[in-house]
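Example 3.2
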Amino acid sequence: MILFVGAGSFDMCGVGILTFHCSDNYGAMLQAYGLKEGLRKKGIKAEIIRYEPPFMTGRHWWIPYIPSGGISGMLIQGGYRWRANLRLGKAFFEKRSRMRQFRKKYLTGEEKRKIYFCSQLKKLDYADYIVGSDQIWNPDITCGLRRAYFGDFKNKNKKRVVAYAASLGKEALPEKYDKTFSELLQHVDTISVREKSAASYVKRLCGRAVAVVPDPVFLLEKKEWQKIEKMLWKNHFIFVYMTENNETLVEFTKELAERKNLSIITDKNGTGLEGENVLKDHTAGPAEFLGYIHRADYVVTNSFHGTAFSIIYQKKFMVFPHSGAGGRISDIIKLSGLGSRLYRENGCADIDAEINWNKVKRRIRKSVEAAERFLAESIGR
């Protein structure tokens, strides 16, 4: 076990975390919880800063606001999402309520006021900041590269900025961002990324060492995640979590459900999963998401965090390629030594194949210990 020595050197206010906690997304909220609690269990008072800018929260509003692609792009994306919200009806508000409840209870509380603009960060009294994890350096998500997620803001108390498991969402950004990205990286004192495939690109632009560390959900063990999960469905079922429609995934799931005589639970419409044996839960929050993975007989996904929690909960699972998350998923599959869980057409896809979970845990633990050392050296001195 790695202990964080020198924790007493922290400012009385501890460490402030700037991340995507305000996004109504299972992975975004759970990684934020994993980082905060992972630090706290090492004796570090870590708090999530309530930085909730409209360019992040707006996409989850009843009438969405997505300031990218100019006026026409904003109207098209917003209109598409609004139609989806209209189809959900009451379920939209139930899901939003569960997201808010989870955020209030486990992430931020309500003691501190929300911060909407980067300029307001100058009023904070943290000395140490962690930016990350999640895709904080993906301009497609943040509607351009944002200074706050690099610690580039004036604050007389600020002493250190550490990037933990920051992600670009891809191996490299388009060339047009290189100059700005390189300049912003100079505001980060110590850098780590989540994807090995992106490390060389970041290193080239910042001119310094770049560590590769696992997503913070792995900083907590299964028993720690079970403390915050919520069970809604106890019967036998397959849990399907898709972040991108995939016909092959759908057909694989249908065949598995028929062969095993199981129900299917998913959280989305329009995926091609229909029928009497399909339950669509449009109201689940992060706690319910964990409960579904825990209780499922099988998990079928093309999501990075769907994959990560299948590993943490030691499930029988199959992960399918994703056009935008291929590198992230491939990295975690390689790290855990679970190549047989990655679906390949015309290849072996035996979801019932036995897994040596002790071996997997050892591989993951080795990576987690390296992450703990990175944090200890970066902010624990």
